[in-house]
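W.,

You were right to be curious about this one. When I first looked at the sequence I had no strong expectations either way, so I just let the prediction run and decided to look at it fresh. Below is the sequence, 254 residues in total, followed by the output.
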Amino acid sequence: MSGAGLVAGKVALVTGAAQGIGRASALAFAREGAKVMVSDMNAAGEAVAEEIAKAGGEAAFRRCDVTRVGEIESLVLGTVEHFGRLDCAHNNAGGPGLGGAAHQITRDDWDHVIALNLTSVFYCLRYEIPIMVQQGGGAIVNTASGAGLIAVPGLAHYSAAKHGVLGLTKTAALENARTGVRINAICPGSVDTPALRVHIAKDPRIEKAILASQPGGRLGTPDEIAEAVVWMCSDRASFVTGESFVVDGGAVMR
């Protein structure tokens, strides 16, 4: 894994990396030559770091609850302390919460979903950007969603958070246009992850409805999202910043 690749010789940090898109992203970074800090509040992320090491790459695991500012700061600074620098970051941790009509969402669920999906990205940027600026450059990808582009009934808080991620991404990208730090967002569509499978298991009609919304008739895979993330962090995307990269099989353009 440590040979030549799109991000060979770089250090990458991935949050929410224990499973799904984050796991695929961490593995893809390593496969393309980066040293990877695997982070998640779930200790299962340690197995992802071990998987990278067994394949010949270099990785470490650090637990982090991204709803806690102090833990984000420790994660970013700890990555630099461990690997010596920080070149790429995929601020991926997130989740949809309980849901319900906008007027039925509880205050606690609203606060949690905003903290997990939006405020966490703000604080990741707050600690990642200065390090990259000091180094002379870097690349950051924030995980937004198709829900950041269109309305999603029943997930007002999640949709609001992901819309916010796009605004935050564009603003930070513009502010850093001359610093060498590129900041983009990825907008995945419906991706076959363990989290989605748990949601689908609640009602067989859910999967049918999701597939009906997919022009290609299938879910995306975590690997398909990860490939886009790594490309955006590579030098091949050197003139790409402030973008909302939609990877959803054409779902939101319908």
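Here's what jumped out at me. Helices lie at 20-31, 45-54, 69-83, 107-135, 156-175, 194-201, 204-212, 222-233. And, maybe more interesting for your project: The chain has a mean pLDDT of 95.

Coffee later to discuss?

I.
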